[in-house]
Structure formats: C-alpha cells, structure tokens
Design brief:
The chain is mainly alpha-helical. Helices cover about 70% and strands about 0% of the residues.
Length: about 325
C-alpha cells in the first residue's frame, strides 16, 4: 500500500504541479499588472482626481494639446513650414465662419498664407519642447544643489544659498534675457538660428533652479537628521550614495509639484521672450512668435492671427497651473 500510495502520489501530483506552475506564471503577470492598476485606481490621489471636475477638465485640455503637438505631422491640416504649399493669395483669409472664410482654413491664415490652426499645433510643440526641457534642466540643477546644500551645510550651504538669494532679487524674465543676450553675444551670428532653442532652454532653466534648490535644501536638512541616514553613515555608505539612494526619493514630492507649476511659468517665459524677438527663430515659430506676428496686424482687422494663438497659450498655461495646484493640495498631508 505504501508503494501504491507513493506511485499514485508521484503520478498525480507532478502533472498538477507543472500545470499549476505554468498557469501561475501567466496569471501571475496579469495579476500583478491588474493588482497594480487596482491599487493605483483606489489610491487617494486617484480618488481626489476623479472627484475634482476642474482638475479632470484641465487634464483633458492638457492631454488634447499635448497629443496634438506630439502628433502635429498627422493632426495638422497643413504643414506651415512647407514653402511649396503656401500661397500668398490665401493670406489674411478670415476664419471659416466669417464672410470670406473657407473650411480649408478653419481659423484663417496669416500674412504668409499659413493656416493658423496648423501653425498653432506646430507652435505648441515647440513651446512644450522648450518648456519641458527647461524644467528638466532647472530641476536637475536645483535638486542637485539643494541636496548638496542641505546635506553638507556650513560654508557650502551658505555659498549656494547666497547665490540663490542674489538671483531671486532679479525677475526671472530679466535673468533669462541676460543669459540669452550673453549667449548670443558669444556665439557666432551664423549659429544664432540653429542654437536658438538650446540657448532659450538654458536661459529659462538657469533662471528657474532656485525654487527647486531652496525646497530640496529644507527637506534634505530634515531627512539628514533621521535615523536611517545616520545608520547609512555608520555602515560606511558615501555621501553621494546616501543623497541619491536614501534622501532623494523622500524629497521628490515637492519637486513634482514645483515642476508642474514651473512648466507653466517656463512656457510663459518662452512666449514672452519670443514675443520680444529674442526667442525661437521665425523659421520655427512658437506660440509667442505667432502672437508677435499677429500683433502687427491686430489693429488692421486680422484679429484671428493673435486671438487664437493667445487662446491656445492661455489654455495650455491655465491647465498646467490647475494641475499643479491640485497636485500640491493632493500631496499635502495636512489637507487629507
């Protein structure tokens, strides 16, 4: 009986074990994904998002603008940069609902016959590119300096914070103008148009790192005095590894909020610089450049050349600000 039981057990259990293992492998991956998605959907952050109609509307507007900008080559009715496709006879065509409008140009055309709707879509892509890149640059610089300042303290902290205080005494737009002007003076004139966007990103990024540094510095000073950081020091972990592995993940919450709000500021700064004529080149117009061009014809009756790019800029900046305000409140434990 013992032999029969062993043989039966061996023959019955092994196939079930193999089938069960194969099933668990497939179901386990799907279960892990569905479990992660369920936890994310049931989180307090998702609950706050779903129950805030203003935030949902802002996210929808931002998603539409970002999707249109990313897919500009497929979404835009025309290519405003294709000189062969432009017709000066179509210049100053009013919107489609106006008396002389046409459905071919839903929002009208500019002084060169470019479709305003297509120019807005392509311009939003450049504005978003400059805004996101400058925010990333400012965040990297600010977070790095904030970690170093808060962790080491002393003379290092004093030096970094005094530089931050000096920069805060000037408006960000003036700092960006100064950096942009210096870069244009140093670079060869022939390279101005080619390097206009990198210079603009550097100018806006260097003008906005202070808020990141000051916020991260305060959070780092709090985290550096906690037991887990002291334990990491005792076991011989170096300062750089402690800051990156242990301190940085615990100070990223405020950084995300600042980055969301700073994105709107960066887009407005880029539009301001482009409106002043020191931003992106006319061959790659952003929303600010389109507003500047349209402003020259505003009082002659071609209002759509300024109003529609301005409305797109307002919608993009307002949606980013609303998302930043919601994220700030949602991540604030005092408001839970």
């Amino acid at each position: 009986m013992a032999g029969d039981f062993g043989a039966g057990d061996s023959g019955a259990v092994d196939p079930r074990a193999d089938d069960s293992g194969a099933g668990d492998s497939g179901a386990g991956d799907g279960g892990a994904v569905s479990g992660w998605w369920r936890r994310a959907a049931d989180s307090d952050l998702a609950y706050d998002f779903r129950h805030s109609p203003v935030t949902v509307a802002a996210a929808a507007v931002a998603a539409i603008i970002v999707a249109a900008a990313v897919l500009a080559g497929w979404v835009a009715p025309h290519d405003p940069f294709d000189l062969a496709g432009l017709d000066l006879l179509d210049a100053f065509t009013p919107p489609a609902w106006a008396e002389d409008g046409t459905l071919r140009y839903p929002l009208g055309t500019d002084d060169q016959g470019r479709d305003v709707l297509s120019a807005i879509i392509y311009g939003a892509r450049i504005s978003l590119l400059v805004g996101v890149a400058s925010v990333l640059l400012a965040a990297v610089i600010g977070v790095s300096l904030g970690l170093v300042s808060g962790y080491f303290g002393g003379l290092v902290d004093a030096a970094i914070m005094r530089v931050a205080d000096v920069q805060l005494s000037f408006p960000a737009i003036l700092v960006a103008l100064l950096i942009d002007g210096v870069a244009r003076g140093v670079l060869p004139r022939a390279a101005h148009d080619e390097l206009a966007i990198p210079v603009l990103v550097m100018a806006i990024g260097l003008a906005g790192w202070v808020n990141y540094a000051r916020t991260v510095r305060g959070s780092t000073m709090v985290e550096a005095s906690k037991e887990y950081v002291q334990a990491a020091r005792l076991v011989g972990i170096g300062p750089a590894l402690i800051m990156v592995r242990h301190v940085l993940p615990n100070v990223m919450g405020p950084v995300l909020v600042i980055a969301t709000i700073h994105l709107a500021v960066a887009i407005v700064t880029e539009a301001t610089l482009s409106f002043l004529g020191v931003g992106v080149p006319p061959t790659e117009p952003s929303l600010g450049t389109l507003i500047r061009v349209g402003n020259d014809f505003l009082f002659s009756g071609e209002w759509w050349m300024t109003i529609f790019p301005g409305a797109a800029l307002v919608a993009l900046v307002l949606s980013a600000n609303l998302l930043g305000d919601w994220l700030r409140d949602a991540l604030n434990p005092k408001l839970q």
